[in-house]
Amino acid sequence: MKKLKTILLTGCILASGLFSTKSEAQDKVVDQIVAIVGSNIILKSDIERMNIEQQAQGITTEGDMKCEILENYLIDKLLVAEAELDTLIEVTPSQVNQRMDQQLAMYISYMGSEKAVENYFKKSIVDIKAEMKEGIRNQLLSQQMREKIIQDVTVTPSEVRYNYRNLKDEEIPTVPTQYEYAQITFQPKVSIDEENRVKAKLREIKKRIEDGSSFATMAVLYSEGPSAKDGGVIGYMGRAELDPSYAAVAFNLKGDKVSNVVKSAFGYHIIQLVDRKGDKVNTRHILMKPKISVEAREEASERLDSLANMIRNSEISFEEAASIFSFDKNSRNNAGIVINPMTMSSRFAVEDLDPDISKIITTMNVNEVSDPFLSLDKESQQPVYKIIKVLKKTESHKANLQNDYQKLAEEYLIKKKESVFNEWIGKQQSETYIRIDATYANCNFNFNNWIK
Fold first, then answer.
1. What is the C-alpha separation between 34 and 46, in angstroms, rounded?
2. Rounded to the nearest 5°, which phi and psi values hold at 168?
3. Which residues contact 238 (CB under 8 A, 6 or more apart)?
4. DSSP states of 381-432 as a string?
5. Contact at 8 Å (CB) between 233 and 227?
6. What's the CA gap between 285 and 250, in Å, rounded?
7. Measuring CA to CA, how many Å separate 180 from each of 279, 336, 371?
8. 270 by DSSP, 3-state: which?
9. In the sheet where 267-277 sits, what is the strand order?
10. Could you give the CA distance from residue 251 to residue 274 in angstroms, rounded to a whole number?
């Protein structure tokens, strides 16, 4: 069975599958029911709307797009029906509102303003939210059910070994060329005037929010953090997962109060509490980063260039220089060696590296020290200058148990989870009333037994 394509209810598809069909049904004399799953129906307008959105985004498929869309709807209906029977699965109004704010923030980011969103849907923001609620609730139920089905799936070393030994030669994954490297980073200095400018702007935005502007909209328009597209919402996090300065403020917020300006390793923030759950808080924030002057950049680059020459001339070792001078605390305490957060090893495939590093490291020899180059600190997302040293290069090869156990285990776990989920779908198909309109009788579905 080929791998299932997840099309249904993705955040990047504008309004697809999220809005009820009530308003559209009022504009049409009839809307054809194309499928029934238990007590849930799928309408022709659902399929048509999703198909238009997929085409607008340039999404293509080797098969029939409408058949794939229908199958994703069918699977989603099975998941939602089971989730509603599961007393341990709960979707709260707060979760729905959070996802709704994220969705609206994405629309605003895509279209430019709240007014543009209202014009697109020919409805007020209030009406758009009202129509989104049920779809978002179902989306969250579906996601939780899918996660629950595969949450206990694990693999043992003996399973990984057995699976590997039974792979045909063409099925054994190829491990791409991998690099191990160390780094030293310098962070350019920010002027006091620039810091004051950013703080003043955030205080102005705070006042606008307190005067009635939407925090989510202000985040889309002004925040420089990755959560801007989600209205600034960063999700539930404990104290240890947050910057200490950010956490100290976030855990003391009450109601919808907006914090004063907070400085963290990432820049400056204003913060608002979204929800609290146990020892975790969900917050939204607006992040602004002071800009670094050309002079400060040049100074950092020149200092790092001098240090690189000292290392090349054996006046100081790379390891010692990293522990004394590097701004990156993680690699600094590890002799400059960088750890891959996806595998927790020191090996990186080219696609695991940031582009600014990959384009340099692939031209270097083992033990060579690079010239300084501008990069972005992974943790703080602030601009830094780096020099790197290539410690080891492992050429591309067929995976083997001795050197690539982790990769083989990860791939087998994905395969096993997919198998468990597929078995669940098959079981639900046999136990659920399903009827599909004859116009879809010739669809080449991934799963058999939709049509009985």
1. 9
2. -70, 160
3. 279, 280
4. --EEEEEEEEEEEE--EE--HHHHHHHHHHHHHHHHHHHHHHHHHHHHHHHS
5. yes
6. 10
7. 37, 11, 17
8. strand
9. 233-237, 280-288, 267-277, 262-264
10. 11
Per-residue pLDDT of the chain (452 residues; tens, 9 = 90+): 334 333 333 333 333 444 443 344 344 435 789 999 988 889 888 888 778 767 766 777 888 899 999 999 999 999 999 998 898 998 888 888 888 887 787 777 777 788 888 888 788 888 888 888 888 898 899 999 999 999 999 999 999 999 999 999 999 999 999 999 999 999 899 999 999 999 999 999 999 999 999 999 999 999 998 888 889 999 888 998 899 999 999 999 998 899 999 999 899 999 999 988 888 899 999 999 999 999 999 999 999 999 999 999 999 999 999 999 999 888 999 999 999 988 888 999 999 998 999 999 999 999 999 999 999 887 777 889 999 999 999 999 999 999 899 889 999 999 999 999 999 999 999 999 999 999 998 899 999 889 87
Q: What share of the chain is helix, strand, coil (3-state, %, to 5)?
A: 50, 15, 35
Report the alpha-carbon distance of residue 164 to residue 94 in Å, rounded: 45
Structure tokens at 318: 């790379």
0.85 surpassed by pTM: no
Quote the CA–CA distance of 327 and 368 in Å, as a whole number: 21
DSSP for residue 122: T
Which domains are seen in the chain, by residue range?
Answer: 1-173+400-452 (1.10.4030.10), 175-189+292-398 (3.10.50.40), 192-288 (3.10.50.40)
- Two tokens, residue 195: 């810091």
Kindly report the CA angle at 425 between 342 and 68, in degrees rounded to 5?
80
Distance CA 290, CA 385 (A): 16
**Lookup: tokens for 208:** 């606008």
- Distances from the Cα of 291 to the Cαs of 134, 154, 193, 409, in angstroms? 43, 46, 10, 44
Under 8 Å between Cβ of 190 and 382: no
